């Protein structure tokens, strides 16, 4: 059960171990050309508001179909992209493509859909993400609070002041901040009071353990914490109705997972959204 209980680290470790060191170097080389070679695409996974059972938004999830390696899991290639710093270029591509997709959502009648975009710690700390966001927001029809950046909490130990000023600047641009994989990092919780954060996203590993005493208690505690701090709270990896009912009873705001939908390409996502509107 190590894979499920120690999700973040060991899952990547196991999957990455399927590739030799040489393969990984070659993979970075391929990844460097993936944009030019049209190998990257975006998927969208619906996020549901639990109270109304309506779709509140989508999370953007990057996909890489490599000519050489086939379909590579993001848990593998995102780590490689971070190690090689390619994530700055790839992250910029994701951000612009995602904002472009807003226009397509609008044309299909879903102009108000909220969109969550994963942002790597490297993009946040080693790149002028605020300036980039400002420029792209001028270029595309982005509405106030329509975009959420999902960041993992591990980064906060590094340079708290930089994180604080970056989050403040993003907030001023109308970006919401969500802490992804909440509960798996090593940060002190005090940052929740001192940073412009809007949402906590409970990691899938806790949701998959909801039937356990310990898993349930952690999820319950995170929901209570979020409610007390006036943060919205979302559960990821919701796969069955029992988990959803547990979350509903405890006052969790939003849920995302295979129970509702897998990540979908744009066309299938629009179909899904249209059904929701009926
Ligand atoms: P994440 O941000 O925590 O995204 C959620 C992951 O859980 C996604 O995996 C999604 O497909 C998967 N998932 C959603 N619902 C369920 C469910 O009910 N059951 C199970 N078993 N899995 C579910 P995916 O797409 O493989 O992405 C993995 C991670 O890669 C993401 O975790 C995120 O950290 C990273 N990632 C993906 N796209 C991007 C990106 O554009 N930029 C950055 N920096 N990271 C990305
Ligand atoms: Mg995420
Ligand atoms: Mg997540
Ligand atoms: Mg996760």
TrEMBL record:
<protein>
    <submittedName>
        <fullName>EAL domain-containing protein</fullName>
    </submittedName>
</protein>
<feature type="domain" description="EAL">
    <location>
        <begin position="24"/>
        <end position="277"/>
    </location>
</feature>
